[in-house]
Design goal:
Radius of gyration: 17 Å
Structural class: alpha/beta
Number of helices: 7
Number of strands: 10
Oligomer: single chain
Bound molecules: adenosine-5'-diphosphate
């Protein structure tokens, strides 16, 4: 589903963020991207959604040659990919339902489809009954679950999460990872960039470790180090 073939990324400041990255991810996999700050984890995620272009190599997602897409084709790529951030990025003046609705309205869904899907999504992220709350009325874990709901609302086939538990305590982090794991079990491929050693060690998933922009380890049912 994802193929990075000898991908390199130098930022305009001449910082080499990635060097010679080759990586294959199959449909339905769950993968942790780990490594110290600055290792290149976020750069990999940003390349996948074509927020930035590689300076070498090629990236394929499904049938898309990501680095060759025309700008007009990029929205179609992004419709298939959900993204979750460390700081949630919710619309604070909108309710839970409205935050999720925004993702669906962009896709041109009718109001009845939007309402139906909001209910399904709230069930997936265990937030039934909170539809009319504003983000400030929710705990941080609940806010992240809204963000996950928004990310999966459009029936994506890849979920990317960049430090999704970076602002959360251990118990809440577990709740969030349990939901992400359930989403993976429903058939969605998942890539999580994280520093969370406890979670990576306990979940025994594939772990791709980055160091100085290179893959230093790629192992299944693995631990953080
Ligand atoms: P990680 O997510 O593992 O912390 P990043 O992918 O954010 O790593 O960063 C990899 C390297 O690229 C770091 O040296 C970082 O400073 C650099 N970098 C990231 N984004 C930019 C940017 N927009 N401009 C210049 N350098 C950047």
């Amino acid at each position: 589903m994802i193929l990075f073939d000898r991908v390199a990324k130098k930022y305009p400041s001449h910082i080499t963020a990635l060097e010679d990255i080759s990586l294959k991810v199959d449909r339905g996999e769950f993968l942790f991207l780990v490594g110290p700050s600055g290792a290149g984890k976020t750069t990999i995620l940003r390349l996948l959604i074509r927020e930035i272009l590689p300076t070498g190599g090629s990236i394929i997602f499904n049938d898309w040659k990501v680095n060759k897409l025309k700008n007009s084709e990029v929205p179609y790529l992004r419709r298939q990919i959900g993204f979750v951030f460390q700081d949630f990025k919710l619309l604070n003046d909108r309710t839970v339902s409205e935050n999720i609705a925004v993702a669906l309205e962009i896709l041109g869904k009718s109001q009845s489809v939007v309402q139906e899907r909001i209910h399904e999504v709230l069930r997936i992220v265990h937030l039934e009954g909170k539809e009319d709350y504003f983000p400030r009325q929710l705990s941080l874990g609940e806010q992240q679950r809204v963000a996950i709901g928004r990310a999966v609302a459009g029936k994506i086939n890849l979920l990317l999460a960049d430090e999704p538990t970076g602002n959360l305590d251990p118990k809440t982090s577990w709740e969030v990872l349990k939901i992400i794991n359930d989403i993976n079990k429903s058939g969605i491929t998942v890539v999580v960039a994280t520093h969370n050693v406890d979670i990576v060690n306990s979940m025994k998933k594939r772990v791709v470790a980055l160091k100085d922009g290179k893959i230093s380890r790629d192992a299944t049912k693995s631990r953080y180090v």
